[in-house]
Structures are given as structure tokens and as C-alpha cells.
Design a protein that fits this description.
Layout lengths: L14 H12 L2 H4 L5 H7 L3 H15 L3 H4 L5
Length: about 70
């Protein structure tokens, strides 16, 4: 679930997605029950939707068309 903070300063273009992806990985069963690292769980396919959204946000930073369309993400 996306989290929105009103009083939190901006940390960059994709900071919200990055924070939500980290929280999703840390709360997943892969990390909590199996004791694996968040990186291993991400490679196994946990939190796919947030991983894809974060990728799209980072890619839109390099896209020249984003000047007109705006960045993806939140």
C-alpha cells in the first residue's frame, strides 16, 4: 500500500516508491520467517508490483518525453 506523508520532505523523484518497496520486503514472509535478506527476496519475485513501479519511475527519469508527461510514480 502506498504511504503518503504530508510533513515529510521530498527525498527525490522515486523516494516514496523506494520506501514502500523496502517496507514491503521487510514485512514479507520471506524475510520474517525464512530469514533471508531483502535482496534475495526481491530476486525471488516478492513485491513484484512495487518493483515494477520503481523501475518505471527510474526509467521515466531518463526519458526525454517525461518533460511533457511528468514522472511516473509518487
Amino acid at each position: 500500500m502506498p504511504r503518503y506523508y504530508e510533513d515529510k520532505p521530498e527525498g527525490g523523484a522515486c523516494a516514496g516508491l523506494k520506501e514502500d518497496l523496502g517496507a514491503c520486503l521487510l514485512q514479507s514472509d520471506c524475510v520474517l520467517q525464512e530469514g533471508k535478506s531483502p535482496r534475495e527476496c526481491l530476486k525471488e519475485g516478492h513485491c513484484k508490483a512495487l518493483k515494477y513501479s520503481f523501475f518505471e519511475c527510474k526509467r521515466s527519469m531518463l526519458d526525454a518525453r517525461s518533460r511533457f508527461r511528468g514522472r511516473k510514480g509518487y
